[in-house]
Specification:
By secondary structure, the chain is an alpha/beta fold. The chain contains 18 helices and 16 strands. The strands form four sheets. Strands 3-2-1-4-16 form a five-stranded parallel beta sheet, with helices on both faces. Strands 6-14-7-8-9 form a five-stranded parallel beta sheet. Strands 10, 11, 12 and 13 form a four-stranded antiparallel beta sheet that branches. β7, α13 and β8 form a beta-alpha-beta unit.
């Protein structure tokens, strides 16, 4: 009996995540307020208690293996289990400079949560939701708290671009004692966080709060400062000991189909920049017009396409349509974004691709011609290749078309830095630590990888910051030129 009394009861695992309250779809489609409303402290502690506190072991895949910025996830979740939010956010901040951002837009379902042991048989622990809660708690309760200062190294670092990669490098280098200056071409810092991601997914006040935290570390920020115009990278190297280039992928890709120059057809970049950064959603309070017809067609299937389609509804479109050449199973957008789009009434024209755009006598788009597709064998991406179904052409009336088929690297810095080697895709060639072919110059994020996610850009920043610190303090050696020739060829 005594032996039986000493036995622990087997832990009862809650199989599903605790629900996240959200705005009602019928209401939110008419406003730009954030869709998920956040969870309270009691719910977050219960969610954290779903974590099994798995230990790292050789060959064992756990949540930490899926985190590009190397957060010690079990540690901060253990602090939440104990109700110690101050300790939890402190642990998060050791590796993560933008927790409120990543808790909202990071594709954690395929990264940390994708590796969660609980997720093998049940829903994974809501790591992203816990991160979001902690960042919001810190902002509201601690006002971002006290920022520790460190002994200056005397080294100066220039960061070109204040997007996710640039902000990560700036924060990490400041933590190490280097004097950091950030140069941002736009009037607001944040990069894609401010011009690309809509307010209903990522409120800009949250981005600004994260930027303010990094500035508290002593980082100097210069906005409206275009490197490649006002100064070049070579100019920066005369004043700074190292330069990190993070200018992103802001050059839109086009279909190059007949009629693409008609009025009412625009890139996702322009449409979202007008809406988000220039606040056309508050027109006429903000004097930025954004033409929206009764039916808006967005071409593409990624997160940017979902952002466009959902934004169009909020700007007054009576119907918003996604035109995508594969099936829903192949949509590259996050499942959460697709789910929200369906809830809000976005119509999906799947297995369809545009053929040409038709205009009226005034040069405005009035319809597009498309063709049905069927899926063939997998292509290089691993997804089944779309094949045209001959004779299946159809016409879709529309007054606005948004092209959301990807972006290419911003060419300005490469064009004004002639000895910077590029890949055939136009990205800056870098080694595994973010070093470029030009000594003292590092690069990361979309300018080096091509268009990717916020968290992957941040991961690039983390790796580059480690290499920059080593270069500045202990090892000024640099890879041989042939290293970058090989990278360029492999790309």
């Amino acid at each position: 009996m005594a032996e039986e009394a000493g036995k622990k009861e087997p832990r009862k695992l809650v199989p599903k995540k605790y629900p996240m309250p959200e705005q009602d779809p019928k209401e939110r489609v008419h406003n730009f307020k954030e869709v998920p409303l956040g969870q309270d402290a009691q719910t977050i502690i219960l969610e954290a208690k779903r974590c099994l506190q798995c230990k790292q072991a050789p060959g064992r895949e756990i949540c930490m293996n899926g985190c590009p910025v190397e957060i010690e996830i079990p540690r901060f979740i253990k602090a939440v289990q104990d109700g110690d939010f101050a300790q939890a956010i402190k642990i998060l901040r050791e590796k993560q400079n933008l927790p409120a951002v990543c808790g909202r837009v990071c594709p954690y379902e395929v990264q940390c949560e994708g590796k969660c042991i609980v997720g093998k048989k049940n829903e994974p622990v809501g790591i992203g939701r816990i991160e979001r809660f902690l960042a919001d708690w810190e902002r509201n309760e601690q006002k971002h708290g006290h920022v520790e200062t460190v002994k200056p190294t005397g080294k100066k670092v220039a960061v070109v671009g204040a997007g996710p990669a640039g902000l990560t490098v700036a924060g990490d280098m400041a933590k190490l004692g280097h004097k950091v200056s950030m140069f941002e071409a736009l009037h607001s810092p944040g990069g894609v966080l401010v011009y690309g991601i809509p307010e209903f997914r990522l409120p800009k006040v949250i981005v600004q709060a994260e930027v303010d935290y990094i500035k508290k570390m002593g980082v100097d920020l210069k906005t409206d400062y275009v490197i490649g115009k006002l100064d070049t990278v070579d100019d920066l190297l005369k004043e700074y000991d190292a330069v990190f280039v993070a200018t992103g992928a802001g050059l839109p890709n086009w279909t190059n189909l007949p009629g693409e120059n008609l009025n009412g057809i625009m890139s996702a970049n322009e449409f979202l920049t007008r809406t988000n950064l220039m606040k056309s959603y508050s027109f006429p309070d903000y004097d930025t017009p954004n033409r929206i017809g009764e039916r808006v067609v967005t071409i593409g299937g990624g997160n940017v396409a979902m952002d466009c389609a959902r934004t169009a509804l909020r700007l007054g479109a009576k119907e918003s349509v996604i035109l995508y050449r594969r099936s829903e199973a192949e949509l590259p957008a996050r499942r959460e974004e697709v789910h929200h789009a369906h809830q809000e009434g976005v119509r999906f024209e799947l297995l369809s691709a545009p053929v040409k755009f038709n205009g009226d006598e005034c040069g405005n788009v009035k319809s597009l011609e498309a063709i049905r597709m069927q899926l063939g064998e997998p292509d290089a991406s691993g997804r089944r290749r779309p094949v045209k179904v001959e004779g299946s052409n159809f016409t879709l009336d529309c007054q606005t078309v948004l092209i959301a088929i990807g972006q290419s690297p911003n060419p300005l810095v490469p064009m004004t830095t002639p000895d910077l080697k590029l890949t055939k895709e136009g990205t800056i060639a870098v080694d595994s630590e973010g070093r470029t072919s030009k000594k003292g110059v590092f690069a990361g994020g979309d300018i080096a990888s091509g268009a990717a996610t916020v968290i992957l850009a941040m991961g690039d920043g983390k790796r580059a910051a480690k290499a920059m610190h080593k270069y500045l303090t202990s090892d000024p050696s640099w890879p041989a030129p042939e290293v970058f020739e090989k990278v360029a060829c492999e790309k």
